[in-house]
Design goal:
The protein has a single domain, classed as Sandwich (Jelly Rolls), CATH 2.60.120.330. α2 packs across α4. By secondary structure, the protein is an alpha+beta fold. Helix content is 26%, strand content 22%. It holds the Pfam family 2OG-FeII_Oxy.
């Protein structure tokens, strides 16, 4: 695949460099050879924490419909989008600059728009009292007919894909395949679907301007579906100086999957939660991220297969919801800012 947006160069002020495009291991969910799948996935998790997933079972028609509906929402006037502004449960629309992922290197927030959709929990459900649980916020069906139905269908199908991937991850960690299926982990997951649009703006790392600043994801894994516009970069070694960034090539019909902070903690750093960012290149770019999170009350602590006397746990146990809440607080604009602007 030709890459018109790669090459080797320097992000002068940030002391980083970019390399040509990186191609990833492909995990085929339709393959009967589970041993090969485990081997390929484990190699990817040890190397860079990113891999492709192909033949995942979600139809091409549904994927195209999700992207079409995604585009329709972001093409609405800002006044219409602001009617479904993100709430305290992190459901709904996030305007440009709402999120600031790399404050040390960014002059303002991420140059992207987003829309959060989570597990649907009625307001009268006791679980709705917790952060991140509650009813979703939906655009009017009069304005976007069928939009909610499409997103709910995709949300459920993507979760089944995630469960299949996580079973292979469990085997790669020498666990039982159903280890992560427990009620406190993925039995009642806190999965978040986020629709994203990067406007046609050119990023300028040397001046702190990014589509999305450098960050790691927070949960278990992320399933990313993108259009064919380049923009996603990964840094395999976040401690290297200078940092080296590599573009990830879009692969039609595939998910780009990466590991989150909780899997790094569970695996005692055996598997990587890899630093990544998005650079705009002047073209509009649409993507759909599906963040697969354990339940809010899940206690994340080092797995028995990943520790020993010579390799003790590197992290203390953590309640996932507490970790997630702090990360969102650190990276999103306080909602009071919007209330003041609209008053």
């Amino acid at each position: 695949m030709e890459n018109k947006h790669s090459g080797t160069g320097n992000d002068n002020a940030t002391g980083t460099a970019t390399k040509e495009v990186s191609f990833l291991n492909r995990i085929d969910l339709s393959s009967p050879d589970i041993h090969q799948s485990v081997s390929l996935l484990k190699q990817a998790c040890l190397d860079c924490g990113f891999f492709y997933v192909i033949n995942h079972g979600i139809s091409e028609e549904l994927m195209e419909e999700v992207f079409e509906q995604n585009k329709k929402f972001f093409e609405l006037p800002l006044s219409e989008k602001m009617k479904v502004l993100r709430n305290e449960k992190h459901r709904g629309y996030t305007p440009l600059f709402d999120e600031l992922l790399d404050p040390d290197n960014q002059v303002h927030g991420d140059y992207k728009e987003g829309y959060y959709i989570g597990v649907e929990v009625p307001e009268d459900d006791p679980k709705a009292e917790k952060p991140f649980y509650g009813p979703n916020v939906w655009p009017s069906d009069d304005i976007l007919p069928g939009w909610r139905h499409t997103m709910e269908k995709y949300y459920l199908e993507a979760l089944e894909v995630a469960r299949a991937i996580v079973r292979i991850i469990a085997l790669a960690l020498d666990l039982e395949a159903d280890f992560f299926d427990k009620p406190e982990i993925l039995g009642q997951p806190l999965a978040l679907l986020r629709l994203l649009k990067y406007p046609g703006q050119i990023s300028d790392p040397s001046n702190g301007v990014y589509g999305a600043g450098a960050h790691t994801d927070y949960g278990l894994i992320t399933l990313l579906s993108t259009d064919d516009v380049y923009g996603l970069q990964i840094c395999k070694d976040k401690y290297a100086q200078p940092r080296v960034w590599e573009f990830i090539a879009p692969l039609k019909g595939a998910f780009i999957v990466n590991l989150g902070d909780m899997l790094e903690r569970w695996s005692n750093c055996l598997f990587k939660s890899t630093l990544h960012r998005v650079l705009g290149n002047g073209q509009e770019r649409y993507s759909i991220a599906y963040f697969v999170e354990p339940s809010f009350d899940c206690l994340v602590e080092c797995l028995p297969t990943c520790k020993s006397k010579k390799n003790p746990p590197k992290f203390p146990p953590v309640i996932y919801g507490d970790y997630l809440g702090q990360r969102y607080k650190d990276t999103h604009i306080d909602l009071n800012v919007y209330n003041k602007l609209q008053s």
